[in-house]
Write the structure tokens for this entry.
Amino acid sequence: MLLAGKKVVVVGGSSGIGLATAELAKSEGAEVIIASRNAEKLNAAAAKLGVKAIQADVSSDDSVANLFRQCGTVDHVVITAAQLKTGPFKTVSMDDVRSTMDGKFWGAWRCARAAEIRTGGSLTLVSGFLSVRPRPNSAIVGAANGAIESLTRALALELAPVRVNCVSPGIIDTPIRAAMPEAARREMLAKTAAALPVGRVGQGEDIARQILAFMTNGFATGSIVYLDGGALVT
């Protein structure tokens, strides 16, 4: 088992990519702790996986500090948590753009500062394809993702010998899209899949496998991997 004897914290581990990562880490022998702000979802996920749950809100300094006090020294930290609100650049509210940056970028910043990671361990951040393929009505999300990628490179130097990497997913079929009407969601995913060289959209497990690689490859730091089914070359 690749993570036997290791302690892994997944912030945002109650659903989507975070849940898939927690499940994979557990299957590889890790002691896993998952954290998120929604207690009901968090506890249900923890019971399903048989892992420890700690409620935490990445937009709160005190909440993040308390999370990592309870975790103690760990081997690997993964941050997938994000609270994204966006809209047309000229009309999206400043409260929404501040909330997005606070949950996505500053949340990662808080976790990186608070975590005590053993030498040889790793921190993995998650950005997103809008950093390099912007779309209308999503400027704040693209900006937050770009900031996450810049932070990754900086922390790879500043936190060494802890390794810091980032995975940037393309279109992934996760519960974050559940807010869309079902017919519209299916249509969007089908159109996306048809346009990709791999012929399908991503799953949480696809991203989790790359995160596992970052945890276990001791030569990887400062790396940003774009997993988008070939979108960047089409």
